[in-house]
What we know:
about 140 residues, mainly alpha, 6 helices
Amino acid sequence: MDSIFLILAGIVGGVIAGMGMGGGTLLIPILTIFLSVSQHLSQAINLIGFVPMAIIALIIHSKNKLVNFKLGLPILITGVLSAVAGALIANNTDSQVLKIAFGIFLISVGLYGLIFAIFFKKKKKDNIFKRIMHSKLFTK
């Protein structure tokens, strides 16, 4: 029965990651809360799973001409360096502290998204999704 839940967690994480939203946002809580996997192991599983999911998503988005490589290269370099630093820090941090830090991170991102949505809803009448998709981030 646990295998079915692990497969479902992988599917949910993969679909969310494929859409570019960060599959670990759901995968890590699913593994730690519902499947009793340790925080360290959950983060390691997320990182191992992220690489092939990110490569496939990059190929698909590149074929659809939705990737600006000039803009992405500095993000890639700093992201890789930050991931190494974060992994070293996480490896030397207590599991309970990691759970609390990850929870605070998720709440912060959620609050930011809520405030961002409210601000743009009141200030702008146009579709924010269209504005983001037509920004420099997604165009050549």
